[in-house]
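Researcher: I'd like a structural prediction for the single chain below. Treat it as a standalone chain; there are no partners to consider.
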Amino acid sequence: MIEFLVMALFLAQPASSQAAAPAVPGAPAVAQATPAAKPGAPAAKPGAPDAGTPAAPPPAPGTSLAPTGLRNPVDLAADHVTGDRNQAVLTGNVVVKHQTMDIRCDKMTGYYNATRQVTRVVCAGNVRAVDGDRQARGERADYDVPSGVLVVTGSPEARQGNTYLTGTKVRLVLGSERLEVENARILVDSPSTTAAPGTRKKAPAPKPPGTKP
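Model: Treating it as a single chain, here is the predicted structure.
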């Protein structure tokens, strides 16, 4: 009975007091003090979340689950979406909007990073892209979201104002006025002229000899 009382008193002390308390002859050795459970309290399950971190409360009725305060959102829409933690596949009337960039295609694969941010968008089939006064179209497109660089391939075409270009690769940069085309062929408009096409101004006929000017 004496040994039991000594052990109970020892377990009730804080950890700092246990280190300074002298050893009691005949008392069992205890490596670390464990707080005693309250009567009737359920035992803690292994791997259970910390009781100090409360779970998120359920949303109020009628409250949207859409995130707020996004600094650089990418808006994706399609007829059908499937995905997992690493990527999402969108098919049918796909629309991607990022700041001033608007991309449309038949199928798109979006890739996420560890924090569920969209880092890359790969489009296929009837790709059409618009950013300001620049337009591009082709069969495939790769959009790097952090850098804002869009590369269109697959018989691509591009237009900026009245300038029309074709080539093997079209490159647009988000919010920039630059338009880059590899192996390009350019069709541009020219200023109008007063002369009708195919006509030349005739030289005046020579005057007969002896006539005054």
